[in-house]
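Support case: adenosine-5'-diphosphate complex. Customer-provided input:
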Amino acid sequence: MAMSPQKSSLEGRDLRRSFGQGSMRSTALAGVSIDLYPGQFSLMMGPSGSGKSTLLAILSGLLRPDHGTVHSLGQNIWAMSERQAEGFRLRHVGFIFQGYNLFGAFNAVQQLELVGRWGMNMGYWEARKKARNILDMLGLSKKKHLRPAEMSGGEKQRVAIGRALMKEPELLFADEPTSALDWGTGEQVIELLRGAARERGATVLCVAHDSRIIPFADQVIHLEDGQLKGVVYPDGKSGRPDREDERSHSSKSVLPGGEDEGWNKGKLGGRLNRTA
Ligand SMILES: Nc1ncnc2c1ncn2[C@@H]1O[C@H](COP(=O)(O)OP(=O)(O)O)[C@@H](O)[C@H]1O
Ligand SMILES: [Mg+2]
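Agent response - structure generated as follows:
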């Protein structure tokens, strides 16, 4: 199911980005092409400094590339005006970052409510009900009235995810959402991200380091020195999607996985669907 199952929802082509001036100029991305698909959980891995955050920011519409194109849901996002791009992100894109970006003054319910009320034009009660449902689903029923300063790292990360899920975005980007969490909590986070793909058909791209996440992914994108080193499908196929010939003939898998068919079926679906 992981091999080019349908039309891609996000296509990045020959993406390049440098930072700095003159002799200090350094290349963060040196021409990367990548496809993401609806309903898939894509994992991006690579050493620190390999360009993962830069690529994620370019694909999600936050950082303009020096060169190359991104078609997101069929639209050429870097050809849009600032205003159009902002509208596109607001309607279609959810973000989860390492630093949580929560508002210090608001409790957990309010963090989510804000997105419903100001991002989605929900009424007060509708936003509140949905916020509570999502927090329940995230196992935060008893933490609804805590402010960020009163929460653990794992709790804050789950609130940040809840905020992204409020929008039910078609595209969901997460940059190292599990790096500050213990494995148990991190696994729950990955479950939720994968659930958004499986149950709602969202396109999910997640940067992470922990190789235990690999079996959960539909495709694993490896970056090194600003270049794509390969794409591996944990169901046993691997290839370079920028080379159609290799893609169709390659059968070598360099990573473990594939043993989790049926993993978590039903459980998360039920939980996520109740919030819809
Ligand atoms: N805003 C920036 N200004 C200057 N250099 C940057 C900036 N963002 C990233 N870089 C550089 O680009 C390279 C790739 O960074 P990044 O995309 O953050 O890598 P990763 O997320 O894989 O650790 C690094 O060498 C980094 O120092
Ligand atoms: Mg990074």
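Residues 19-20, 26, 28, 46, 48-54 surround adenosine-5'-diphosphate (ligand 1) (CB under 6 Å).

Case will auto-close in a few days if no follow-up is received.
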